[in-house]
Every structure is written in structure tokens, then in C-alpha cells.
Write a structure and sequence with these properties.
CATH topology of one domain in chain B: Dimethylsulfoxide Reductase, domain 2
Chains: A mainly alpha, B alpha/beta, C alpha+beta
Structural class of chain B: alpha/beta
Shape of chain B: globular
Strand content of chain B: 15-25%
Oligomer: heterotrimer
Helix content of chain B: 10-25%
CATH architecture of one domain in chain B: 3-Layer(aba) Sandwich
Shape of chain C: elongated
Strand order of the largest sheet of chain C: 9-2-11-10
Radius of gyration of chain B: 26 Å
Number of domains of chain C: 2
Helix content of chain C: 25-40%
Structural class of chain C: alpha+beta
CATH class of one domain in chain B: Alpha Beta
Distance between the termini of chain C: 103 Å
CATH architecture of the largest domain in chain C: 2-Layer Sandwich
Largest interface: A-C, 59 and 56 residues
Number of strands of chain C: 11
Largest sheet of chain C: 4 strands, mixed
Chain lengths: ~220, ~800, ~300
């Protein structure tokens, strides 16, 4: 099926016992884990400077000044790494009408009654929301981050702009961390998910249960 | 200063003009802020620029550079016409009632006796009328048409407020406020101090500027009283010291005169200086001149100075003319000078017309620069592009640089503007191999002396006869030199009854102990007492103020005789009573003179004797009419040599000062108002000390680059933007710098015509840490005051244009 | 002359305050020293300042700072702004007073105001990088500074500067090292006209009253003390001829206070943010406990197989 809306390059179904499905290419996985690692490091170093009770986290980065120096550079890594993810996944994350239906039945989502939900493509509405909110937050974070990156950009912005930026940065970071928690929890809660990002594969049953539309298109497109 | 820095605190009105104390004397200026804060004193500033002092002032009036005499004469006229004078003071303590001899006259700006050919005055007609008793004739009613009072009234009548505004550009109401405030002190209980500096001195009529101020102070009764005086603010920490010590070419230490060609013998020199009193019962202290002179000669030549050989007078050089700085470089420029020992002096920066100075230095065989820092002068031969564009290859002058210790690296004394001699101790080791000036000069002296002794010569005694009796002849100590300045008894000094009052070898306690028979020595009579029998008083640091009048008599030593206010007998009325409780200072207690200060008077001379307080004058009183001045007994408004006006608005026929020091070839390079319509003045910045601190990093940080201050109006007219490079040129040279466009300078309306004035700070050059600049004196004219020969740095003509370069 | 501060005694003496006398410490909760030491203040009398920059040079020298030689940009202010090395700076304003018609050259010594409620300290994330002693002095502790520049945002007076060399924040320390041994700050010591005076805050206020009375007598009817309540007062105060218009003096803040953005950031956001993150994680945990894992069933696998082999 040449015009599949749900299938990404590299997605494939392998017959066997059980059936396995290739969900993420090696490149995508590396890209994801770079992003993930930077995000974790950013969160840790950022939180260290966010609340005094967490300042001890700077110890992980070799002390306060190093934390201050490294954090923005990790941010740059995250930003470019996330651009990679964005390019890979943005199309598959475009919002569809069924996503609204899915969201409307959030109770069924939370109670794992997936048979009551519309069939889901590669990403469900929740995943899409994580994707888009991260996209927006990272743009906010990188722009506000540059404004407050004293070492290189200290002189380019007014103090009032910097004050606004530091507030935006903090709020966006809190939001991003919350989204991240949701993202990670969902991966844990929905068993069988993590292998998608470790080996790149999921079982056919996982795909049937959670992303049936995606699986159907994969199979039919084969 | 007639008074002292600390005494400024006693003033009710502080008038700063011809100076910018906040800028150039910030530490002394604190006494102005103290007077304001604690006494409620009013500060008024008159200056071409709204300067840092003006920023502190209660009243500011602008004035065109070089028109001070008109302004001040306007004040004198105001005082006379409104009768705002301290009558009792003026009548008793000035020559206002004296009658001037028949024949004195004044017309079209010139006094009688002018000789155009020699550019000089014959002062014969300026004398007082003398009575048959040998004393001056007076008219106590002041009504005699030739009385000084009547002459003055006539003389100053032309300087109406309207005339002042027309000549100086000071708006009438601003001028009048100055006059009113000055007049407010013509009372017994108020006083005004006048503070000035080089803004008055450095004009072709500088001495007359100061004369005007002295006259105002006398009319208001402000000389000799606390919070009064004419206070010359000296530019270096020790410039008072160097003038005291006699480095001026026409004077010996302590303002004794250098012998001149027509004075072959000691007697011929001394008889001219008898200063016989011209009123009854006057002190005329210069009658003691002989004692000071002989004591000086004894210090110079020691045992070799005897009565028989005129105490070695013969060995002193005799001047043919005065070798002031302008003459010195003019002679050098003529190629008549072989070598120059340039000690702590940076003449290409600090003397007018740098181009002429550089040309003069280029004609030397050798130049020795003795300085703690590398000076621009020591590198005058080096091409620094547009900043010092010389042809190095053509300069044959051999230059030696002798590094000397800086002031903190040696012991010695400073004499400040208050005439206070204060000891300073060595604070740091000499840098690298630098040596003290004393060591270098001693070494030089000893070598020259040896050469003379070995090879002989035409006239060897001036060198070989010098008494050089120091523990280490190669390095006389500061202590030894200080003692020598003070003087000592050579033999036991006895009083009339034969009692020994000062044993042989003892230091003298006062110059009153000096004798003219060779029994005392002492280089500098005015300093005698500073290192008396009780030790070195310059070291005293007792800041107690027993009288509560801010008089710190136990701090250092203030010459003469540790006196803090000169002529302080005038702080009491003729009967010896203080003029008022507020100004109680020195008074007669029934038996002797006493009070807050050392009386400037014979302590037991009762008021009933009628002796005047101005004991240095043969009159016993001060001079409103002053015949000794070279350019007239009364001030006259004279335009600067470079004037923006077609003619002098007061006396159209009078050009510049008719007797100013000017050489012919310099006359030719004066600029005219057509090509150079803008008035310029030079000044220092508080961030720098002359041409030194451009070599000091922290100072360079605070004022890094030469700039030109211009008004917003001139900037608009010429299209100059703030921070833009401008070129300023006179008929002698040019400089380039950044434009500081400011509201603090405003164009003047002079005689109906708009005249712009610009300001040029002088502290920048081509050696040092600051940005490179050409010497500001590339622009200035080579003309000096008629009395002091001080060059006219403060008023000259230039033109200005914007040039390409960074706009900040 | 006022006030009398004795010359230093030659033998070393113990510092009169130190770590034990802190009332505030950045990013730390401490028990404020009690009782507080007498509060000190530096009073800058703008009406007595001649703009000589002796304070600037004294500051460089005492604190062993080296500033670059700059250029002239058409004004007297040099350097042109505070820098990591220039902790105090004269700022010049030419003001034509519309009421009197007189020109006034207002010269203000800029530098840290040592706020009683210091915005820099509030913004600082590094424990102990900014401290406030019980006498009121706000000091930067270089060893603890991480160079984040938050103090720059926190300061209502635009004072701290971050060094490009060592990425540390710098500002006037009110010469806490001198004050600790009974001396006044270096700028005060160098000031030739006593435009800068130093003493207890009460003394300084009294002295200011005396000065204000003098200024009022000279026609400055709005003369007054600048001790802005928005930051609970400062330990560096100004006597201004026009206290009704502080902004005239090279942009001195009219009503300085810590920016609401900074207050929101360091107040609400800090706590709400932490709460939000904990709540999100807690919700996940709760959900997992209540709802359990979402597992793939054998049925799902069979369905997938069926589909794949179709």
C-alpha cells in the first residue's frame, strides 16, 4: 500500500512464533536514546539549579560551575537530536479524527479496555500529545535557554527579556519533565513496549492490542 | 595662598574663577564643600565652561576666555558705585587715600610713560606724591582728584554691567549676582575667599587678572581675615616648594633677587632694596633683605664667604635678561644652547607651541631627561606619525635618559599651596637602578668640580668655592639639606647685653635671628624655623585645632614663621579689636598680639603706634594703586593676543597687553579671527596629573583618550556628532580627538557677535597608556605675561571640523 | 569632617563579622544570626560629588582589579558601564532644570546598593554564593558562585556582571573585608569631598537629614534620601537634589523592587513546579497500583498471527 499513513520506513512484520514486528530502526533508536539521555541529564542538571533542595545533583556533573557550563550544551544536543526525531515522526503524529474519539474514551484507555477504542495506527492520541507537547516545549526551552545563556549571549538581551526567559524556561522545563514522566510511565505500564526502543521489535500481539491499524496496514502493504 | 586650605572653611562666600578647584585640586576642594555644608557658605563659579566646580556651585556665570579683567573690573565698579566697601578697612589698610604725583594719566587703555618701540612703560609718573618729611601725601577725605580713590572711581566707571556683558558674554543678571554676593562680604562679620589657579595666571595679562581679585578683596576687607584671601591653588604637590627654593630664573631661594648685570657688587645690589618706609612707624620688613642675603651667601660658600669678598657675591651669576621658559626655548631655537638638563620637565607637552620647542630641542647637542617615567620630551626625536611628525634622521641631538626615583621612593618635603612644608617619608624602594635627583646632581657637581680643580679654567670659584659639606658628598641626605635651608648660628649669637641667645652650631628658630655680618647662614630665610632647635617641624602631624577656627598650627610648618594666614594683623581693626566675633582671629590683648595664629606683626607693637598690617610693603598698607606692575598701576581690559573680536570693545586702540613678553617670530604665527573664529582654552582633567598619569594604568582607565569639548550649537553648526573624531587647528599646529558634545559649553554673544568656545584637556600625549594624541600645546601661542612671563595657554584661536573616524 | 573612622591599627585584628553573622544565604535555609549586628550604610551625597573618580580608582586598587583602557565615546563616563572589574562607576548627566533655568551636572556613583531584600540573593541557585551579613552587607562568595547569571536577573539595579574570564559574578562588596576590621570602604576612604560617608545606617540617615536641610535651604525643595522601600531599604543610600525624580540620575530606578517575574519564578514556580512533577509521578504510581499493568494476552498474539498469515 503505497499511500499508507501509518507505516514508517523500516517497519516490517516477521512471521514466526510469536509474530514480531519491527517498530524502530537502529537509527531511530539511537536518535531516541540520545534524546532520552540528554533529557534526563538536562532534567537532573536543570533541577539542580531549580530548587535549592536539589542542588546536590550538581555533584553528578562535577560541581556547580560545571553543571552551569554543561547544561546548555546538553540542551543543544537535545535540540538537534530532537529535530532528528521530529523529522522521522512528525507525519505519523499528525492528528486525526479518530484521535478525538480515542481521547473521548480516556476512561477505557486507563482501564485497559482497548477493545472499546477505535483501532490505533502507529501512534495513539496520547503518544501524539507527548510528541507535540515535547516539540513545543523544546522550542520554548531552547529559545529561552539561549536568552539566559549568560556565557555567550549575556549581552544580547535586555535584563527584562532575560527575566521573562528564565521564567519561561522554568515553566517549560517543569512541563517537559511532567510529560516525560507520563511518557516513561506509559512505556512501563504498557508491558512489551520497551523492547520497541531496545531491540526495535515488538510482538505481534502487542501491535494487535495497541496499534491494530498500524499492524493491518503493515500486513496489507507487504 | 594668603590663607590656607583649611581656612576656606571659614568663608561665607567662596568664589572660584580662573581655576577649577574641584577638577584640579579635589583634595583641597573638600574645604569648600565643608564651608558649604557646615557653614552654609555660598559657592560661585565663573568659568568659560560649566566645569566640575560649577557642578557644586550655588551660582555659575559663564565668561569668555581671556576677558576676566573686564568682569572683575565690573565688580570693582559695582563695589565703588554702590559704596559696598569695608570703609574702615580700606581707609586704614590700603593706599586708597594716597595722592598720586602730578603727571599720571590714562588714556585709550594706555598709562603715561608708554614706549612703543621697547614695548615697555617708564613708571616715573606712577609714583606717589611725597611730602617734605619723606612720607607720602594723603587725603583722608578721599576727595582729592589725584587720590587713589578718585582715580579708581574714574578708571573703573567704564566697566558697567552692560559693558561686562558686551565684552565677556556673561549675562548681565549672572554678572550682577556675582557682584552682589561679593559685595555681601564688604562687612565686618562676613568674608569671601577667592580661589584661582592657572586660568588667571596663564594669560598675557595674567598678573593683572589677579590684581583685580586682590583689589576686590581689599575693598571688601577680606585680606588677612579668616575665610578671606587670594588663594592661588598650585598645580603640583610641591610647585610652591620649587618656587620658594628659587628655581625661577630671576630669583634666589626665598624670593631674594638674582643679581643682574648692573649690580657688580653686593652693595650695589642691596642698596636698590632698602625699602625705606614711606609712612611713619612702618615695619617695611624687606629692610632685613641684607641679613637674608648674606645668610644665603654663607650657606652657599661657607667659610669662603667673608666680609672682604662680599660673601662671595661675585661668584653668583649676573643675569643680562630674565631666562624664563619662553626666553629659554627662544634662545635654544636660535641655536645658542648646547645642552639641556631636563629634570622633571616635559617641555614639548607643557610649553606653548610644541613645534617650536621640538625645533629648539633638535638644535641641541645633547638633552638629558631626568624623570621617573619616560617622557614625550625624551622621545621628541621619535616619529609617532601624525602625533609627532618629526624627521628623525635630521635630528642630531643626543638624548640621555636618567631614571630617577619617584617621589614616594625618597625622603623629603613637599610645600603645598598653603605654604605648609610637610615631610614625606620613603614609602618604597627605588625602582630598578633609578637614583635620586640629589644623587645624580651631586655626582655631576663633584665631577665638574674635579675637572675644574684638575684643569683649571677662566672663572673656577663659582664651582670650586661652593661649600659641599655633607656626610656623604655623593648623596647629601634630605635631613642635612633641610637643616641647611633653615640655617644656623655660625658663631655664638649675642644680644645687645652680650648674652648668648643662640649658641654656635645651633639651628635658628626664626629668620629674625639672621644677621648680615656673616655670623648666620640659611639658604632660604622664609623657611627658617621649620627645622629649628626643636627639630624638623615639617614632620609634625598634630591635627589639634585649639582655636576652633580650623587652624592646625602644629601640623607641619607653614612659612613664614609657621603663619597660616598672611597679613593677619588685618583681622583686627586699627585699635586691635577683632572686626567681629565671627571673624575673631589675631588681636591685641592689651599687651601683645595674640589669637588663633602666629601674628604677622611685631608681637609687642601696640595698635597705638599706627603700624600698618602689610609689613612687607614700604607703605605699611596694601596697594590698590600698584606702581610696581609692569603693565600699569591699575588693571585694564586687554584682549588676548588671539582675540575673536575685531577690536577691544573697551579700548579700541589697545590690541593685546602692550608690554607682554612676545618675540618677533612668534608674533608672526598668531592667528586671526577670520581664519580661526573659535576661542579655545586648555585645562587639566581630575582623572590625570599633568603628563604623568597617562603612563599610569588606573588613571588611563578613567580617562583613556583625548577629547574636545564643544557646545551643542557648534556641533550642530559644524555637523559634529557625539564621539566623532574632530580636527582642531590653530595657526601653529593641529590636534585630533573625540568630540564631547555638551550642554556645559554655550556660545557667547560678544559685542553683538556669536563667539564659540571649545575646551581642550591637556593630559594626553604620544607616550603612555592612554590613546595616542598630539601635544595640545601644538596649538598654543608663544606669548607670556608682562610680569611673570607665564605663557598664554588659556585663550587662543582655533578652527574645528569633523573628520572621518569612529563615531561612538 | 564626618564621620570619624579611625586609621587602621598596625597589628592584625580579628574580623568583626563572618560566617556566623549571616541573615541570608542564597539557596540555603539558615537560622538568621541573632541578635543582628548594628546595620551599616554608605551614604553617597550626590550634591557633594565632584565626579573625580577617585572612588573608582580606589576600588580597582583595593580589590586588586585591572580594567582595560577603553576609548572616549563622547562622554565623561569611563569605563562606559560596570564590568566584572569596575564595581563602581561615575555616571554623568547634564540636566537643564526647567524650574530654575540652571544647568545641573548630576554625577552619580553607581554600584551595588546592598538591598535589605536582595534580589540577587533571592535569584541565586548556588548555596552560599550570595550572603547577607547581619550588618546588611550583601556579598558574593566567589568560591560558591557557579556563574549562572541569575543574580543579574534578580537585581533591580542592574549591578552584577559576569566575568568572561572565570564566569563568576562580580559586584561591590562594600569592602566587607575592610568593614570587618573597623574600616570604611575604599571608595569612602578615597573620597576627597566626603561625598561618600560610611557608618551605621542610623547615623547615615541623620547625616542625610542634615544634608537635605542644607540642600533645601539652597532651593532644592525636593531634596531627599534615596532608601527605596521596595527593597526594604538599602545599605547604600543617596542624597539626591531631586529625590522626586531618581530617574534623572542616569536612570536610577524610581521605585526599585525585585521584578514580579523573578518573584514568580523564585516563588510560585519553584514550589508549584516541584509539586507538579511529584504529582505526575504519583499519579502514575497510583494508576499502576489501581489499574495494574496493561499486558498483551495470548489471544492478542494469536490474532496477530492470524492476521500476519492471512
Amino acid at each position: 500500500m503505497a499511500t499508507s499513513t501509518e507505516v514508517a520506513r523500516g517497519d516490517a512484520v516477521h512471521r514466526g512464533e510469536p509474530v514480531t514486528v519491527d517498530r524502530y530502526t537502529t537509527g531511530a533508536r539511537i536518535n531516541h536514546w540520545i534524546t532520552a539521555a540528554s533529557l534526563v541529564l538536562l532534567a537532573l542538571s536543570g533541577l539542580a539549579l531549580f530548587h535549592p533542595s536539589l542542588f546536590w545533583l550538581t555533584g553528578l556533573f562535577g560541581g556547580g560551575p560545571n553543571t552551569r557550563a554543561i547544561h546548555p550544551w546538553i540542551g543543544v544536543v537535545l535540540f538537534f537530536s530532537f529535530i532528528g526525531l521530529f523529522i522521522r515522526f512528525w507525519k505519523l503524529n499528525l492528528w486525526e479524527r479518530t484521535d478525538n474519539v480515542w481521547l473521548g474514551k480516556i476512561r477505557d484507555v486507563l482501564t485497559s479496555n482497548e477493545e472499546n477504542l477505535p483501532e490505533v495506527g502507529k501512534y495513539n492520541a496520547g503518544q501524539k500529545m507527548v510528541f507535540w507537547s515535547m516539540s513545543i516545549l523544546i522550542i520554548l526551552l531552547i529559545t529561552s535557554g539561549i536568552v539566559i545563556w549568560e556565557q555567550y549571549f549575556g549581552g544580547y538581551f535586555s535584563i527584562e527579556q532575560r527575566r521573562l526567559a528564565v521564567l519561561v524556561h522554568a515553566l517549560a522545563a517543569v512541563a517537559a519533565i511532567c510529560v516525560w514522566i507520563v511518557h516513561v510511565y506509559a512505556a512501563i505500564w504498557v508491558r512489551g513496549t520497551i523492547s520497541a526502543m531496545t531491540s526495535g521489535r515488538v510482538t505481534g500481539g502487542w501491535a494487535w492490542r495497541h496499534h491494530r491499524k498500524w499492524l493491518r496496514e503493515l500486513v496489507s502493504g507487504k | 595662598m594668603t590663607n590656607s586650605w583649611t581656612d576656606i572653611k571659614n568663608a561665607d562666600v567662596v568664589w572660584i574663577m580662573g581655576g577649577n578647584a574641584a577638577e584640579a585640586h579635589p583634595c583641597g576642594f573638600k574645604w569648600v564643600t565643608e564651608a558649604k555644608a557646615e557653614r552654609g557658605a555660598k559657592l560661585m563659579v565663573v568659568d568659560p565652561r560649566f566645569n566640575r566646580s560649577a557642578a557644586m556651585a550655588d551660582h555659575y556665570s559663564p565668561i569668555r576666555s581671556g576677558s576676566d579683567i573686564a568682569f572683575l573690573s565690573g565688580v570693582i565698579n559695582y563695589l565703588l558705585t554702590n559704596d559696598k566697601i569695608q570703609h574702615e578697612y580700606v581707609k586704614n589698610y590700603t593706599n586708597i587715600s594716597f595722592i598720586v604725583k602730578e603727571g599720571y594719566g590714562f588714556q585709550d587703555g594706555l598709562f603715561t610713560g608708554y614706549n612703543e618701540g621697547t614695548r615697555s612703560y617708564d613708571k616715573a609718573t606712577w609714583a606717589y606724591e611725597m611730602g617734605p618729611d619723606g612720607f607720602v601725601v594723603k587725603d583722608e577725605t578721599l576727595s582729592h582728584p589725584r587720590s587713589v580713590y578718585q582715580i579708581m572711581k574714574k578708571h573703573f566707571a567704564i566697566y558697567t554691567p552692560e559693558m561686562v556683558e558686551r565684552v565677556t558674554g556673561a549675562p548681565k543678571e549672572k554678572f550682577l549676582k556675582v557682584a552682589e554676593w561679593a559685595a555681601s562680604t564688604a562687612t565686618k562679620d562676613r568674608s569671601m575667599t577667592i580661589m584661582y589657579a592657572l586660568g588667571w595666571t596663564q594669560h598675557s595679562h595674567g598678573a593683572q587678572n589677579i590684581r583685580c581679585a586682590a583689589m576686590i578683596q581689599l575693598l571688601c576687607g577680606n585680606i588677612g581675615v579668616p575665610g578671606g584671601g587670594i588663594n592661588a591653588l598650585r598645580g603640583h604637590s610641591n610647585v610652591q616648594g620649587i618656587t620658594d627654593i628659587g628655581t625661577l630664573t630671576a630669583s634666589l631661594p626665598g624670593y631674594l633677587a638674582m643679581p643682574i648685570d648692573g649690580e657688580p657688587t653686593l652693595e650695589s645690589h642691596l642698596t636698590k632694596r632698602q625699602f625705606k618706609p614711606i609712612q611713619a612707624n612702618q615695619t617695611s620688613y624687606w629692610q632685613n633683605y641684607r641679613k637674608f642675603y648674606v645668610s644665603f651667601l654663607k650657606s652657599m660658600y661657607g667659610a669662603k664667604a667673608t666680609k672682604e669678598n662680599d660673601f662671595g657675591y661675585n661668584w653668583l651669576p649676573k643675569l643680562d635678561v630674565a631666562y624664563d621658559v619662553l626666553r629659554m626655548f627662544d634662545v635654544m631655537h636660535q641655536g645658542k644652547t648646547t645642552g639641556m638638563l631636563c629634570q622633571g620637565f616635559n617641555p614639548i607637552m607643557s610649553v606653548s607651541n610644541s613645534r617650536k620647542v621640538i625645533a629648539a630641542l633638535s638644535k641641541l647637542k645633547f638633552l638629558v631627561s631626568m624623570d621617573p617615567i619616560e617622557t614625550d620630551t625624551a622621545r621628541f626625536w621619535e616619529n609617532h606619525g601624525e602625533f609627532n611628525n618629526v624627521d628623525t634622521a635630521s635630528i642630531k641631538t643626543e638624548v640621555f635618559m636618567l631614571p630617577v626615583t619617584a617621589f614616594l621612593e625618597e625622603e623629603g618635603s613637599f610645600t603645598n599651596s598653603s605654604r605648609a612644608v610637610m615631610w614625606k617619608w620613603q614609602a618604597a624602594d627605588p625602582y630598578a637602578q633609578s637614583r635620586t635627583d640629589i644623587a645624580i646632581l651631586s655626582d655631576l657637581f663633584i665631577r665638574i668640580k674635579k675637572l675644574y680643580e684638575k684643569e683649571g679654567g677662566k672663572f673656577v670659584e663659582p664651582i670650586t668655592a661652593v661649600d659641599w659639606n655633607y656626610k656623604d658628598p655623593h648623596h647629601p641626605s634630605a635631613d642635612e639639606l633641610a637643616k641647611e635651608l633653615n640655617g644656623k648660628a655660625i658663631v655664638d649669637l649675642k644680644d645687645a647685653e652680650g648674652k648668648v641667645v643662640r649658641a654656635a652650631g645651633q639651628q635658628l628658630a626664626t629668620f629674625g635671628e639672621m644677621r648680615d655680618d656673616g655670623s648666620t647662614d640659611g639658604v632660604q630665610w622664609i623657611y627658617t624655623g621649620f627645622y629649628g632647635p626643636n627639630g624638623n617641624w615639617a614632620m609634625r602631624r598634630d591635627n589639634s585645632d585649639p582655636s576652633g577656627m580650623n587652624v592646625f598650627g602644629s601640623w607641619g610648618f607653614s612659612w613664614p614663621a609657621n603663619r597660616r594666614i598672611l597679613y593677619n594683623r588685618a583681622s583686627a581693626d586699627p585699635a586691635g579689636k577683632p572686626w567681629s566675633d565671627a571673624k575673631k582671629y589675631v588681636f591685641w590683648d592689651g599687651k601683645r598680639w595674640t589669637g588663633a595664629d602666629v601674628p604677622d606683626f611685631v608681637p609687642t607693637n601696640a595698635p597705638s603706634n599706627g603700624t600698618g598690617p602689610f609689613i612687607m610693603n614700604a607703605e605699611g598698607v596694601s596697594r590698590l594703586f600698584a606702581a610696581p606692575m609692569a603693565d600699569g598701576p591699575l588693571p585694564v581690559h586687554m584682549e588676548p593676543f588671539e582675540t575673536p573680536l575685531a577690536s577691544n570693545p573697551v579700548f579700541p586702540k589697545l590690541k593685546g597687553n602692550p608690554v607682554a613678553r612676545v618675540f618677533k617670530n612668534d608674533m608672526e604665527v598668531f592667528g586671526n579671527a577670520k581664519d580661526f573664529p573659535i576661542v579655545a582654552t586648555t585645562y587639566r582633567l581630575v582623572e590625570h596629573f599633568h603628563y604623568w598619569t597617562k603612563s599610569v594604568h588606573a588613571n588611563a582607565v578613567t580617562q583613556p583618550e583625548f577629547f574636545v569639548e564643544i557646545s551643542e550649537q557648534l556641533a550642530a553648526e559644524k555637523g559634529i556628532k557625539k564621539g566623532q573624531m574632530v580636527r582642531v587647528w590653530s595657526n601653529r599646529g593641529e590636534v585630533k580627538g573625540k568630540a564631547v558634545v555638551t550642554k556645559r559649553l554655550k556660545p557667547f554673544k560678544i559685542d553683538g557677535k556669536t563667539v564659540h568656545q571649545i575646551g581642550l584637556p591637556l593630559n594626553f600625549g604620544f607616550i603612555g597608556e592612554t590613546k595616542t594624541a598630539a601635544p595640545i600645546n601644538s596649538l598654543t601661542p608663544y606669548v607670556g605675561d608682562a610680569n611673570s612671563q607665564t605663557p598664554e595657554f588659556k585663550a587662543f584661536l582655533v578652527n574645528i571640523e569633523p573628520i572621518s573616524g569612529p563615531v561612538a | 569632617m564626618y564621620p570619624v573612622i579611625p586609621n587602621p591599627i598596625a597589628k592584625p585584628i580579628d574580623a568583626k563579622f563572618g560566617e556566623k553573622d549571616l541573615v541570608k544565604r542564597s539557596a540555603s535555609s539558615i537560622t538568621p544570626a541573632s541578635p543582628r549586628q548594628t546595620q551599616v550604610a554608605k551614604l553617597i551625597d550626590v550634591s557633594k560629588c565632584i565626579g573625580c573618580k577617585a572612588c573608582q580608582v580606589a576600588c580597582l586598587e583595593w580589590n586588586n582589579l585591572t580594567e582595560e583602557v577603553g576609548v572616549n565615546v563622547g562622554v565623561y563616563d569611563n569605563p562606559h558601564d560596570l564590568t566584572p572589574n569596575t564595581w563602581t562607576l561615575m555616571r554623568y548627566t547634564e540636566y537643564e532644570n526647567p524650574e530654575s533655568g540652571n544647568l545641573e551636572w548630576l554625577i552619580r556613583k553607581d554600584g551595588c546598593m546592598h538591598c535589605e531584600d536582595p534580589g540577587c540573593l533571592k535569584a541565586c541557585p548556588a548555596p552560599g554564593a550570595i550572603v547577607q551579613y547581619s550588618n546588611g552587607i550583601v556579598d558574593f562568595v566567589k568560591a560558591n558562585c557557579i556563574g549562572c547569571g541569575y543574580c543579574v536577573k534578580g537585581c533591580p539595579f542592574n549591578i552584577p556582571r559576569i566575568s568572561k574570564v572565570d564566569n563568576k559574578a562580580y559586584k561591590c562588596s562594600l569592602c566587607s573585608d575592610r568593614v570587618a576590621v573597623g574600616q570604611g570602604p575604599a571608595c569612602q576612604k578615597a573620597c576627597p569631598t566626603q561625598a561618600i560617608v560610611f557608618g551605621t545606617k542610623d547615623e547615615m540617615k541623620k547625616w542625610a537629614d542634615f544634608r537635605i536641610k542644607d540642600l533645601k535651604s539652597r532651593g532644592f525643595k525636593n531634596a531627599g534620601l534615596y532608601d527605596p522601600p521596595g527593597v526594604q531599604g538599602t545599605h547604600v543610600m543617596y542624597v539626591l537634589q531631586h529625590a522626586d525624580k531618581p530617574n534623572l540620575y542616569a536612570g536610577l530606578a524610581d521605585n526599585p523592587r525585585i521584578s514580579p517575574l523573578v518573584e514568580f519564578w523564585k516563588g510560585f514556580t519553584k514550589y508549584a513546579g516541584l509539586t507538579a512533577m511529584i504529582a505526575t509521578a504519583g499519579f502514575g504510581l497510583l494508576h499502576h497500583v489501581v489499574a495494574g499493568a496493561n499486558r498483551v494476552t495470548e489471544h492478542d498474539e494469536q490474532e496477530a498471527k492470524k492476521l500476519a498469515e492471512k
